[in-house]
Structure formats: structure tokens, C-alpha cells
Amino acid sequence: MALPRNPLVNLLLWLLAGAGAVALAWPLDNRVDAALAASHSHALYDFAWWCSKLGEGWVPAAAGIVCALLFVLLNRPGVAARIFFVALTCELTGLTGLILRILTGRTRPLAGVPQGFYGVWHGGHWIIGKYQFSAFPSGHAATAVGLAAAAWLVHRGWGALAAIYALAVMWSRVALQCHHLSDVVASTVLAIPLAIISKQVLFPSVEFQFGNLHRAWQGKSARSAGLRPGKSQN
Question: 26, 49, 102, 228: which sits with the fewest CB atoms below 10 Å from its CB?
């Protein structure tokens, strides 16, 4: 039996399977949260804290911009374009996760209210942006998984290394008791198809623009070389 090739069908099947994965993770939240908690070990907690910090959106954004510019200067516009695309995609997946977690209003593991989804309003007050109501999905995990998925789509070796980074970030968010298991599973379900769509929609434009940037840089360098003292000019 042939598998469906319609992208929309594939997306719907992925989301259906993802919903099933989140549903399976749900009853395990409390046990996994307790098992992975790093609060019993100062060294483990510090390690988890650093892993979590590396999952903040500004880290891959800054690294991506610097590395992309470096490879432009090294006359490697194709590599620069792939790096920039990976950084751009992880920012988009992280932003999507951030918006969704604001709207769902799920409680953090250590929230001082009964666990659940509260939406944007609770107890007669808006809870948009309130930390204890911002668990589902994990923005850090959405950023890290988006980076890993995008990296895999442009270079398998990069993707394998980025997957280790993503797993470390996902573990850290549960270990620090900032998120439940189902929160990071949901982030994975969200980020992977977004990365695939980003590859189809954004990557060709990113490659084209970096090609233009490289040609402009080469032209500027050639003009500068032509104006150096001792160079003959027609």
C-alpha cells in the first residue's frame, strides 16, 4: 500500500500521531518530572541550568548571525546561507511555541495553583505572560528541536550534532522543573513540521540573498584591490 504523498495529508497524519504521543506522555508527567528533577544534586542542577541557557532564543540567533557572516567573508555563501536558515527557523519555531504557551495557560510543575490549563484568564485576572501559566509547549524545546530539524534538513552531520543539543535542552527543562514531559513532547511535534515548511518556503530565498551578498562583497573587494597604490588603471 502506497503512503500518501500529499503534504497536507502528511502534516495531518503527523499532527494526529503527535497528539497521540502527547496523550501517552500525559499520564507519565508526574513520574518523569520527579525522576528527572535535578534539585537533589547541585552539580547536576548547574549543568541543567547551562543546558537550559543554551536553549534561549538569543543564543542560536547570535551564533547563527556571527557564523553566517564569517562564512560570507570566507567566500562560502552556501554554508553561510544554511547556517542562517537554521538559526532563522529555530527562532520561528521558538516564537510559535511562545505564542501557543501564552494562549494555553498550562501550569508549570511548581505552580502554586492546581495543575491544568487556564487559558488567558484566571481568578478574575489576565494571566497572559505569567510565568507559572506558561508551560505548554516549551519555548526552549521548540527552539532547540526546530534548530535540530532544520540542521538535519540541510546537512545530516549538523543535524546529528544538533539533535544532541536539542535532547540536552529538553532534558534540562524537565530537570529544572520548568516543564512537564508532555510539554517538551508537544514542542517536538510542533517544531519538526514547521522546520520542514520553513525549508520549502524560506530556504530558497535565504540562499538567493546570501548569493547576492557574496557577489556584492566580491565586487567591493575587487574595486578596493583595483584602487590600491601601484595598480594600473585604465
Answer: 228
Q: Is residue 227, in this structure, part of any structural domain at all? A: no
Residues 6+ apart with CB under 8 A from 179: 108, 109, 135, 138, 140, 141, 173
How many domains is the chain partitioned into structurally? 1
Residue 9 lies in a domain: no
d(CA 150, CA 159): 7
* 102 inside domain: yes
Cα 214 vs. chain centroid, distance in angstroms?
27
d(CA 184, CA 188) in angstroms, rounded, equals 6
**Cell for 34?**
520527579
Please determine, for residue 125, whether its predicted confidence score (pLDDT) is greater than 80.
Answer: yes
Question: Is 19 contained in some domain?
Answer: no
